[in-house]
């Protein structure tokens, strides 16, 4: 999905996240051809990032137009029963 956003030049990725180092390596190698800074990518757990955000730390960029994601991401599947969708509210609270 990200490829369409990148190649059409309508949107720019300002934050990317996955807890797997291999995912980071693949993302950085691919997105480098589009001029992305490696600091856009984050390997911390989204759960930990949201906790930091709630504690007042600047974690997520401001003025976001589109948020995309895959489901279930690794962070949810290893930390939360993914069938308990009431726990997924954490995503809507970020925005």
Textual characterization of the structure:
This protein has 5 helices and 2 strands, in the order H-E-H-E-H-H-H. With 95 residues, it is mainly α. The longest helix has 11 residues.
SSE pattern: HEHEHHH
Distinct helical segment count:
5
Strand proportion: under 5%
Q: Terminal Cα separation, in Å?
A: 21 Å
Strand order of the largest sheet: 1-2
Could you estimate the helical fraction of the residues in percent? 25-40%
How many strand units?
Answer: 2
The radius of gyration is 14 Å
Structural class of the secondary structure composition? mainly alpha
What is the compact description of this entry?
By secondary structure, this protein is mainly α.
Observed structural traits:
95 residues, globular, 5 helices, 4% strand, mainly alpha
Question: Could you give the topology of this structure?
Answer:
Elements: H1 2-7, E1 16-17, H2 21-31, E2 41-42, H3 46-54, H4 74-79, H5 90-94
Parallel strand pairs: 1-2
């Amino acid at each position: 999905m990200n490829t369409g956003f990148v190649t059409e030049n309508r949107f720019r990725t300002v934050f990317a996240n996955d807890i797997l180092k291999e995912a980071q390596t693949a993302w950085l190698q691919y997105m480098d051809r589009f001029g992305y800074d490696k600091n856009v990518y984050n390997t911390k757990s989204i759960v930990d990032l949201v906790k930091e955000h709630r504690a007042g730390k600047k974690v997520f960029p401001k003025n976001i137009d589109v948020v995309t994601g895959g489901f279930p991401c690794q962070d949810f599947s290893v930390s939360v029963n993914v069938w308990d969708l009431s726990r997924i509210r954490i995503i809507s609270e970020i925005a």
